[in-house]
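Team,

Forwarding the record for the chain on the shared tracking sheet. I've put the sequence and predicted structure together so nobody has to dig through attachments.
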Amino acid sequence: QVQLQESGPGLVKPSQTLSLTCTVSGASITTNLDYWTWIRQPPGKGLEWMGAIDYSGSIYYSPSLKKRTSISRDTSTNQFTLELSSVTPEDTAVYYCAKCPGLDATTTCAHWGQGTQVTVSS
């Protein structure tokens, strides 16, 4: 049974860097052929695909967020991480990690973390 769990601070100050970790169990991030993905949902808005890392370590970013986003992984702990720099209140959202069959995918992702609320505020 594949499970994903997000962790990280729930409050970040403007201009700082948001850092989240997704811990995966039940599947290996280095052998499973799906994409290990970060998705967010701002209040009152739809899901936004942010980026993903695949089994080989190749990384893919949303063009709109690429300049501020960094995704990495720790294969020893089966975790992958998201960093979003220079945050503003517009980055306030529920952040999800997910296991998805393709890039820029949200509705087809088979496994999701429960989501973590991140608020950007001073």
